[in-house]
Design brief:
Blueprint lengths: L3 H15 L6 E4 L6 H5 L5 E7 L2 E6 L3 E6 L5 E6 L10 E6 L3 E6 L3 E5 L1 H5 L2 H5 L10 H9 L8 H4 L11 H10 L13 H21 L6 H9 L4 H4 L19 E5 L2 E5 L7
Antiparallel strand pairs: 1-6, 2-3, 3-4, 4-8, 5-7, 6-7, 9-10
Helix pairs in contact: 1-8, 5-8, 7-8
The structure holds zinc ion (ZN).
Zinc ion (ZN) binds next to loops.
């Protein structure tokens, strides 16, 4: 499932394609959205923003297009009126004079007014967005708060209420980068360590956003490529690298299941 960095890159792509241009044509698969096909024509796409793993497009006239891709949804950008070669089902098209933003296979699509947006069940539960709304200090403060400090980091990082946009690969990579064992809890750490954790969250998330999914530093990437590793593993410190050697200390990486999802650990490095 795409995580914050992927969703933000997708938002950038959609914004570049249709942002600040008027809608010339709209299509919606779901019957309850059909009335908007006419209503939106002529209105400008004012903003496109990722919210956790959801997408919100603000449209002139007080409309908010919301989608959550779950596992299968996929956006395509095409010149206006053109379609990709795919067997997926088109669920929404937002077209300007220049481009079409096409959403396939997504199950959750809504068009709301501001009030409904503010009451939306996913969005209201969402914590600050990891790529837009946070500083290391804020993350440290949240982690150390009574609401979150007694839970394991492994559980916390998958909780969208703690931070919106962190998912499974970021969880493994952030905890490795901050040398925290997944079973540790914020209350086991000093304030200084919590601040370091906050910095790691930002370093790894932004690195992945800017590079298109690479969480390792340049030197680790060069070394991994020179070993002949493919993209599937060379972009990560630990994720997907069960039984291989830790890039830092050479210990064997183990895979576990915590909070229902797989996580990778170097118990030598993640040992505060
Ligand atoms: Zn290690």
């Amino acid at each position: 499932m795409p995580e914050g960095p992927e969703i933000h890159r997708e938002a950038d792509k959609i914004r570049d394609a249709i942002g600040n241009q008027p809608c010339r044509y709209a299509y919606f698969y779901h019957d309850h959205l059909k009335p908007f096909e006419k209503e939106l024509v002529g209105s400008t796409f004012n903003s496109v923003e990722a919210h956790g793993k959801g997408m919100v497009i603000e449209i002139e006239g007080g409309h908010y297009f919301y989608s959550h891709n779950q596992l299968y949804g996929k956006w395509y950008i095409k010149p206006a009126g053109e379609y990709p070669d795919t067997n997926r089902e088109l669920r929404a098209e937002l077209r300007t004079d220049l481009n079409s933003a096409l959403l396939y296979s997504a199950s959750e699509i809504e068009i709301m007014d501001k009030e409904s947006l503010n009451e939306h069940s996913y969005l209201t539960k969402l914590g600050p967005d990891v790529l837009r709304d946070v500083t290391p200090e804020l993350i440290a403060e949240r982690a150390g708060s009574d609401q979150f400090n007694g839970r394991s980091f492994a559980a916390l990082l998958l909780d969208q209420q703690f931070l919106g946009g962190v998912g499974n690969y970021l969880r493994t990579e952030i905890l490795f980068h901050s040398a925290i064992h997944p079973k540790d809890r914020p209350k086991d750490l000093t304030d200084e360590e919590l601040l370091e954790f906050g910095k790691s969250v930002l370093t790894i998330s932004h690195r992945s956003y800017e590079s298109g999914g690479i969480t390792v530093d340049d030197e680790s990437l060069r070394t991994a490529k020179s070993r002949g590793e493919k993209r599937k593993t060379h972009r990560y410190y630990l994720f997907g690298r069960e039984d291989d050697d830790c890039r830092v200390c050479g210990s064997t990486i183990v895979k576990k299941k915590i909070s229902g999802r797989r996580i990778y650990i170097c118990s030598n490095c993640q040992n505060r």
